[in-house]
Amino acid sequence: MLDLAIIGGGPAGLTAGMYATRGGLANVTMFEKGMPGGQITGSSEIENYPGVTGEITGMDLMMPWPEQCQRFGLKHSMVEVTRVELKDDGNFTIYKGDGTTEDAMSVIVCTGSTPKRAGFKGEDELFGKGVSTCATCDGFFYKNKEVAVIGGGDTALEEAFYLSNICSKVYLVHRRDTFRSAPNTVKRLKETENIELILNTTIIEAYGDVMGVTGLKVMTPEGERDLKVPGIFTFVGMNVNNGILMDEKGENAICALSASGNVIVDLKMQTNIPGLYAAGDLRIDAPKQVVSAAGDGAVAGVNVITYIDEKLNS
Predict the structure, then answer these.
(1) What is the CA radius of gyration of the chain?
(2) CATH for 123-234?
(3) Confidence (pTM)
(4) Over the stretch 148-179, which tens digit does the pLDDT of each residue have?
(5) pLDDT tens-digit profile of 242-273?
(6) Which residues make Cβ contacts (< 8 Å) with residue 145, sequence separation at least 6?
């Protein structure tokens, strides 16, 4: 039986594995069907990770992490996990895509969340080349330039405000004429001078060249409009990757989830189920930054050691 099973090999999972193994757990496996690294490996440039001062890609940033984490005994199993089941004895069964299972005394789930695509023409082709889902990550690249934000929820408005402090102008494109946000937030939005609202509008296409995005065509009530922007930020929701926490029928989760499907954890990253932890973008109120995910992993890894020690000595 494993001391600890870690599901997911991004920054949270890798850091959890390093802290757990370096802290003394001898039998720890990280399940990641692909190469470790997580979503950040798709970023073309990283500027906001502490200690990284030069130009570096997400892939370059994550390249040394697996070797460092495995130095202390973390094992990597390149297999997909389909489900985690709580057993009657308080341990867990890990169901794998190859049809086999493995038992573990504790589990840290680090499967993250995936930004929803808006679905307009050119979005996929230009993703990472001017189309982004993270203003905190990529906003600085458009300092004193014009950008477009697509969406009408809280996240879209918050990110529009964030970008308005960096960019010369922000076009907020929304398919409706009302926003799914607090009245005070909407009022502040309308009072921000360099945010222009483009409402009741659909996206025609994003276009660009070999260097990336150069514009966004939209259909407004007054007709077609061409926004000459080098950056497009889409915020139309997140798909929380919580499927492995669902029961065999896919109807109920084995731990408490928020209304949006994020895992509810305490400050130790522990769920309401003893021995089950969640770290990174999967958890509630996650900042969705590499440094935060790594911090979550460290917290979970340290606290798992205490949990296992108490479990074995109770």
Answers:
(1) 21
(2) 3.50.50.60
(3) 0.77
(4) 999 998 788 988 998 999 999 999 999 999 99
(5) 999 999 888 899 999 999 899 999 999 999 99
(6) 167, 168, 229, 230, 231
Asked if 274 and 307 count as a contact pair (C-beta separation under 8 A), the reply is yes
DSSP track, 234-261: E-S-EEE--GGGB-TTSSSBSS-B-TTS
Binned at pLDDT 50, 70 and 90, residue 42 comes out as: low
Active site residue 110: no
138 noted as active-site residue: yes
Write down the catalytic residue from 69, 137, 167, 255. Answer: 137
The one catalytic residue among 3, 110, 138, 281: 138
Classify domain 4-115+238-312 at the CATH topology level: FAD/NAD(P)-binding domain (3.50.50)
Q: Where in the chain is the domain with CATH 3.50.50.60?
A: 4-115+238-312, 123-234
Let me know if 134 is a catalytic residue: yes
